Amino acid sequence: MSETQRDPGTNDEKDQQLAQHRIDATGELTTSTGTRVDDTDNSLSAGGRGPTLMEDFHFREKMTHFDHERIPERVVHARGAGAYGYFQVYESLSRYTRAHFLNDPSLRTPVFVRFSTVAGSRGSADTVRDVRGFATKFYTREGNYDLVGNNIPVFFIQDGIKFPDFVHSVKPEPHNEIPQAQSAHDTLWDFVQLQPETMHMMMWVMSDRALPRSYRMMQGFGVHTFRFVNADGEGTFVKFHWKPRLGTHSLVWDETQKIGGKDPDYNRRDLWDAIERGQYPEWELGVQIVPESDEHRFDFDLLDPTKVIPEEEVPVTPIGKMVLNRNPDNFFAETEQIAFHTANVVPGIDFTNDPLLQARNFSYLDTQLIRLGGPNFQQLPVNRPVAEVQDNQRDGYGQHYVHRGQTSYFKNSLAGGCPYLADADRAYQHYQERVDGAKIRHRSESFQDHYTQATLFYNSLAPWEQEHLAAAFQFELGKVGHHHVREGVVEHLNQVDHDLAVKVATGIGVRSPEQVTTNHGRSSPALSQAAGFPETVYSRQVAVLVADGVHAADVTSLRSALAERGALTDVLGPRDGSVRADDGSSFEVDRAMSTVASVLYDAVVVPGGADNAAKLSADGLALNFVAEAFKHNKPIAAMNDGVDVLEKAPLPGLQMAKPGNDVQVDQGVITHRGPNGEALHQTFIEALARHRVWEREVATVPA
């Protein structure tokens, strides 16, 4: 066979074909057409703080290619959960904005909210260390408004042109597609150590904020500084905050890893189940309002998305509430096909020149075009506005409307001039501001402080939160194989706090920084999860461990006390079915202990009964259930003979109740031996409302 007649399917021929398309990452950076690039960190803008210019072909090409990289799954925020509900403003905000849904307290505006993880694929677990998306679509009478935010108020980068680089670094590494849904690997931390603007965000991601207990117990933020515009055309800067009515609470790292094996759908299931049982999640929407005259009064730039406005400087004013009260009927049709876009705004809400926001305003629409198959994705039921649509757009993939008539252009005389232009007081009016400046690629000097707010965040944390953050850095950097990357991150941490840098360096086996940096000492208590949450047990889940011989009255009285306050109990036995109570009755078991684990519950209770205690004390699974709950700082209670089980469990030397004693409390372990369980119930409920028993952990924190 001659060379020209060889089978093109042979391995060596295939290798030659592939070799022609292999490109090594060497030489100068260029565009896809070969034009050399000397700056890929800054978008072309009108002045250092001006808007991004459409003629920036490098930014548009880079972002367009990134947006179209993966189909049909979202490139980021692929794994999500969603629900319908409503939003209602408390009182008119006409002083600040002409947005109708923010001016009528009697109006309930329909919403759809999608929560998500960012880095992982659709098949990844819910409880990974990651940012969580918090995106809300308001179906207003003036059109759809999308508030597309996260559960962390800042972001990794300042200019959207860096977004493809950041996501490429945090995604599974391209040579082996490992690791899935984790930030603990070389490329992410290499990006971080070379981009100091990431440090504030990385402090948040290494904190417990990246491990939410529930979507229902998670804050949301608009991230950017937006602008309200009133009927007179006056603008006001605004930051958006969602605050959950149940308080802001997190898991602990060891729990998240175990939950990933026991129930990878933990957060999605929690949201779904809460809505199905009528315990509707609620958030309060608050705003930080900054007059335009105060734009430059802060020690940071309001347009910098890596910064927060401390609540001590500008308080968060509650303006309305959101309730999620209906689950989707079909995950794909609704949760998967919903399309958010930061540029979906209504009259009275406008943008600022934040360069990350400017990039998102381009990128989101571009992404939906490839992900949802063409320009008509807004016609899908979950995206369709309640406002009338007359846009003169025709045809295209996925066209749902059957347009009648001869014309599809403006102006026309054949259809009576319809659709015609709206009056100015009804139409969207862009806020008018003067913009001038040279066409440059340059980051404003007001964006250059990358450490002050990272230090502010660290100083604001409770001691146990600081310990968790340091341990997270040690875990993540301990997975990094290149020691110069570890060292580079530690050098940045040294600019945040010297003691933190030394602690992390010691844990990952690199040299501690010699230069001692000065911590500015300022803090903002609102940044800590230890401050100011409502103490409630509503929708908390309690495991009750039982076996044959359990004291029936202990179980029924506890369940009744918890149910009155909206808490949930699962009776867990050694097997499915029922157990025999000490009075001869039977108790139905909700689940077998072997199918669940303490990490899926907020607290554990062991009721009385001599036979019950003897059987549970001999059951290694039950003893581990208690010990693991203790390790994760959860409230634990035992009644009567159930105290014997706690004494058998591998717990530290705690003070347990003796017969006839009052309720005994030691490090959140609540015990009582006596006929009246009401005192124990009340003490246990108070501990459960505080979420965790952090004094256990504080007692082990080194001085």
From TrEMBL:
Enzyme Commission number(s): 1.11.1.6
Q: Which GO terms describe its biological process?
A: hydrogen peroxide catabolic process; response to oxidative stress
Protein origin, superkingdom: Bacteria
Q: Which UniProt keywords apply?
A: Heme, Hydrogen peroxide, Iron, Metal-binding, Oxidoreductase, Peroxidase
| Sequence position, cross-link 3'-histidyl-3-tyrosine (His-Tyr) | 341-364
Query: Where along the chain is composition biased (Basic and acidic residues)?
Result: 1-25
Q: Name one GO cellular component term.
A: cytosol
The UniProt catalytic activity note for this protein reads: 2 H2O2 = O2 + 2 H2O
Residues reported to bind heme: 74, 114, 163, 360, 364, 371
Domain Catalase core: start-end pairs: 30-418
Q: What function does the entry list?
A: Decomposes hydrogen peroxide into water and oxygen; serves to protect cells from the toxic effects of hydrogen peroxide.
Q: Which PANTHER family match?
A: CATALASE, CATALASE-B
The name this protein carries in UniProt is Catalase
